[in-house]
Amino acid sequence: MIKKLVKCDSCGVTLEVPQRKEEPYRDIHCPNCNHQLHVEFKETVRQIAETIYGGQPGRVSRAGSHADGETVLAAPKAAISGKLKVGLQQYPLRMGNNVVGRKAASSQANVQIVTDDKYMSRQHSLIKVSKVADGSLKALISNYQNKHTTYVNGMELLAGDEVQLLNGALIKMGITTIKYIEE
Question: Which domain holds residue 9?
């Protein structure tokens, strides 16, 4: 199965889009901003399935082009670190388990968000960060042992749910919105 990494040219979120049943293209909506994206699944001699496409219906913007008009495909960069961003504050994530919660004297979270949001628990979510074989990051989020809910891109995490975070994902803990960023 061919998969393409697609960067939304409206909000910048990177998505992995699988090809279905040999289809030549797919039109999808960004789950973050609902912008329509057009993804083509053509194979080329140089590289397969790594072009970044985006745009509105009937328009395709390409990552670059060669002098003879051939599309030059863009390879995705492997992320070397992940962090959480709340307003102007940034909180780096370490490899392994990151317990994320509201900063408080009694908090045992190793990523403590400075906020007065009483709906964010002191130990709200768990983000497990690991590197995969190609050098990219894999970050999995789950609700931690608390009475409040965690949302990822508007989807509620139920007990036992573990969701992979993609670059630009929006996480809601309490009434605080946090952006996950890979660099």
Answer: 1-76
Whether the pTM exceeds 0.70: the reply is no
Cβ burial of 84 (10 Å; 0-12, 13-18, 19+) is: buried
pLDDT in tens, the chain (183 residues): 677 777 777 777 777 777 877 778 888 877 777 788 788 876 533 333 333 344 333 333 344 444 444 444 444 555 567 899 999 999 999 999 999 999 999 989 999 999 999 999 999 999 999 988 877 779 999 998 778 889 999 998 888 888 999 999 999 999 999 999 988
| Residues 125 and 143: beta-carbon distance below 8 Å | yes
Same domain, 129 and 51: no
